[in-house]
Amino acid sequence: MGIVLGIESSCDETAAALVGPDRAIIAQRIASQDEEHRPYGGVVPEIAARAHVERVIPLVEATLADAGLRLADVAAIAATAGPGLIGGVMVGLVSAKALALASGKPLIAINHLEGHALSPRLADPELAFPYLLLLVSGGHCQLIVVDGVGRYRRLATTIDDALGEAFDKTAKILGLGYPGGPAVERMAAAGDARAVPLPRPLLGSAEPHFSFAGLKSAVLRAKDAAAYADADIAAAFQQAAIDCVLDRTSRAIAAAGPVTALVVAGGVAANQAMRASLGALAAASGLRFVAPPLALCTDNAAMIAWAGQERLAQPGFAPDPLDIAARPRWPLDPDAAPVRGAGVKA
Ligand code: KG4
Ligand code: ZN
What does the pLDDT read at residue 346? Predict the structure, then answer.
């Protein structure tokens, strides 16, 4: 067992990290593309792919230099192989393949969602399987029982928008620019959530899933009505989103079977109000609550390197072949039943 180099490039962050088997993050660098995408109010896939091409190799070299290491010193190279914007994923994965080929080190192709799902164990050595994971990011909103490495049971997903997407669209409606989540959270802190009535889609529903499209449309109508302060709209949106998340999560706690903890991961897990509410729900349910530090919640390469460490530690570990393909879609639980919104009528 040795140090794993991780590479992440599935969205708008190019990142590299070196993580030890003892959970030490030896070095990590993240090059954000916020400036490139800001004029468009969202991530432009072609611009993202080009930016990854320019940055990934210099970033890996700089990360190794920060640690005073060479490629020959690492035990394996882990890279995001999907899901995500396919151009960016291909850039990171093909770079990892080239480094693996040149150095003779094993390649480990990581599911980006698995990176998020296992990131809490990087931050918290005590966190044992199985745990209930709320994975909330720009592209996903899922409740998953993590039974072990590579063993995931999806209990719920969104039938329309991801939660981070809802934050980003609310930011756009309020003219807060990109990236939206942190801006909405800052503005919400100055607002009164009770001042604007907003819906809570699927609250109390027997169906386990999430829905945020109706909430987003209601935010748009509230803004168009020109009757409310922007800060109140932001606060009301955030509270409605949190109410939905709490309702769906408590339903999942009841359905999950025995778990050691409630865990939140993904970019939206950086939201302090969300973390506080989930912590309270866990306490009320007699569960430990684990939320990784903010820098491990948003996209990063340390979580990819750590997922590589977890894979390396599995009995019967086998490296991935160098011709493994990048995947735009890659569900963590391929056996999960399809939901309405995914071509299924309900
Ligand atoms: O996990 P992540 O970095 O990238 C994806 O894999 O999608 O998540 C990014 C998402 C964005 O939608 C962003 O607006 C949201 O996480 N986000 C937040 C906060 N920080 C990031 N949403 C709410 N509050 C925040 N503080
Ligand atoms: Zn992510």
Answer: 40
